[in-house]
Amino acid sequence: MNKRERLVVGPVTLAVNYRTMAISSVLIVVCLALALLALSVGSVTLSPIAVLEALMGQSSGPERFIVETLRLPRVIMAFLVGAALGLSGLILQALVRNPLASPDILGISGGASVAAVAFLSFLTPWLAIQWLPVVAIAGALIAAATIYLLAWNRGVSPVRLVLIGIGLSAAMGAATTLMITLSPITTTMTAYTWLTGSVYGADWDDIRALAPWLLVMLPLVLSQSRTIDLHEFGDALATGLGLPVQRSRLYLLCLSVALAGIAVAHAGAIGFVGLIAPHIGRRLVERQFAGLAPVTAMIGGLLVLTGDLIGRTLFVPLDLPAGVFVSAVGAPFFVYLLFRQRY
Questions:
Q1: 108-118 and 185-196 helices cross at what angle (nearest 10)?
Q2: Are 112 and 139 in contact (CB under 8 A)?
Q3: pTM of the model
């Protein structure tokens, strides 16, 4: 199943891996099936036929409103956010050559969280809530820049990057808790929901704000496939093959931060997606980034979509944040990875 052939399309030669193509096809079908299920179930249950008719514009009334206005934007948002977090984690793990790396563990999500809670606690009287994504992205960028500068010592080594990221993440977590403690109760409830991670209330304006970023970022990420593969061989070999290691590491770190910051800005600090999705992807397909990236993105999307579906349907009339259920899987998985690294 790992057979690889070369496909020549004009001046372009592509390496086709049949196992990766088969797994990707299966994941696409699973994604579509889960999306159809998410559009069908809820406080009002619709048949799959009714959902498809609403999507094709062949029905009117409450069914179309439920599908197109209430559920479809939420399903798309959950998938896009999970895909962005999965890709961000995949880049980070290749960059620092550490299977425990992810945006939330290295402090990138923590920077977005600090900025978001500060905005909710102190700036909402002067700025509209629509500025929250911008502030969260800025927080993620500042956190990443701080980690990179503190880790710099005639270059940035993966070990220093991870250790400083973990330390800064703990400090930002403490700062976030302090601000929540000092905030009014209404702000505290909003901040806790955001920190847990939720796509509740997602609408088409949110999709229009998020999708263009991802459409720009995805080609940029895939264009760096060979560079990312070289980083996994180590700095010495990558340098010997002509790669400007420090410059490419900074560029890839910026791509990872942008993906994580965009996702966290629109759905809150959903943890462990960037940790779990790359590991599952590597068990399914080869490690080459060009084939692994779309598989990881789909797995990340499935994780968040499944978490949101569980939180929305199993506890009616409550609508629980998707991050609760993703973390319920992610925390034991993280302990398992620690145990496996030890032995």
A1: 160
A2: yes
A3: 0.87
CA distances from 25 to 16, 19, 93, 164, 302 (A): 14, 10, 25, 39, 14
Q: Which of 170, 206, 196 is nearest to 117 (CA)?
A: 196
Domains of the chain: 76-342 (1.10.3470.10)
For the chain, what percent of residues have pLDDT higher than 90?
18
The more confidently predicted of residues 182 and 309 is 309
CB neighbour list of residue 194: distance below 8 Å, 6 or more residues apart = 113, 116, 117, 120, 268, 269
Measuring CA to CA, how many Å separate 12 from each of 6, 7, 139?
Answer: 10, 8, 40
Q: In this predicted model, what pLDDT tens digit does every residue of 178-202 receive, in sequence order?
A: 888 887 777 777 777 777 788 888 8
Number of CB atoms found within 10 A of residue 128's CB:
8
The structure tokens listed for 217 are 């970022």
CA distances from 260 to 18, 31, 130, 136 (A): 30, 21, 19, 10
Residue pair 262/214 in contact (Cβ under 8 Å)? The answer is yes
Condensed to tens digits (0 to 9), the pLDDT of residues 252-266 reads 888 888 898 888 888
Burial class from Cβ neighbours inside 10 Å (0-12, 13-18, 19+) for residue 242 reads exposed
pLDDT of residue 5: 55
Residue whose C-alpha is closest to residue 131's, from 116, 112, 114: 116
pLDDT at 269: 81
> In DSSP terms, which residues pair with 6 in a beta bridge?
15
* Cα–Cα dist 324/302, whole Å: 15
Backbone torsions φ then ψ of 16, nearest 5 degrees: -105, 120
